[in-house]
Design brief:
Blueprint lengths: L2 H41 L13 E3 H4 E5 H21 L11 H25 L11 H14 L7 H25 L7
Antiparallel strand pairs: 1-2
């Protein structure tokens, strides 16, 4: 082989590698876009702590006093609003059809809020205090709940689900620490 031939192969190899990196990054961004309604649903309830009107707990005995009706509704409405915006934007990434944005928003919102509530139920049964870290359940409850309800409408491979879980775990830690430092959340988890 000539030096020119080796150089060509190396350049081709680098281009292939760069293309794969761009493809992985693009897919990760598509997955973040797809999961945005679940993320917004999960981030909405802490904002209602500023709500001064009626906001009773869903079930203090089973879920704790911090899971409220208004917080649950805020999560649901946040997910619906996000899917509406995604529908208007019109980008699908081949994962889900946003023409049924209301149903999709309900699935994301209910799934995220139900996942969080199920985690809180078990957290209370195990006597883990509200606000105390419960890794990895605190980071993945809403993600898994949303995926369960959205899965019948989405085209996701196993690798996509692994990426969703990894990005959600890391993103949850980062966002909650930031919200804690900004005074939006009382705890880092």
């Amino acid at each position: 082989m000539t030096a020119a031939g080796l150089e060509s192969e190396d350049i081709l190899g680098c281009r292939t590698h760069e293309h794969e990196e761009r493809s992985l990054l693009r897919r990760a961004l598509e997955i973040l876009y797809f999961m945005a309604p679940a993320y917004v649903a999960n981030m909405s309830p802490p904002l209602v702590k500023y709500w001064r009107a009626w906001n009773r707990p869903i079930s203090p005995r089973w879920l704790g006093s911090h899971k409220t009706v208004v917080g649950f509704a805020a999560g649901l409405l946040g997910a619906i609003a996000t899917t509406l915006v995604q529908h208007i934007i019109g980008y699908t990434a081949g994962i889900v059809d946003y023409d049924r944005w209301l149903e999709l928003g309900l699935r994301f919102g209910l799934g995220a809020m139900a996942g969080d509530s199920v985690k809180s139920f078990f957290k209370r049964r195990l006597r883990v205090l509200p606000g105390a870290p419960w890794i990895p359940f605190d980071q993945l409850d809403f993600t898994l709940g949303a995926l369960v309800l959205v899965a019948p409408r989405a085209i996701l491979g196993l690798w996509d689900v692994v990426v969703v879980v990894a990005l959600s775990f890391g993103g949850h830690v980062l966002i909650n620490h930031t919200a804690y430092w900004l005074g939006i959340r009382d705890v880092k988890w």
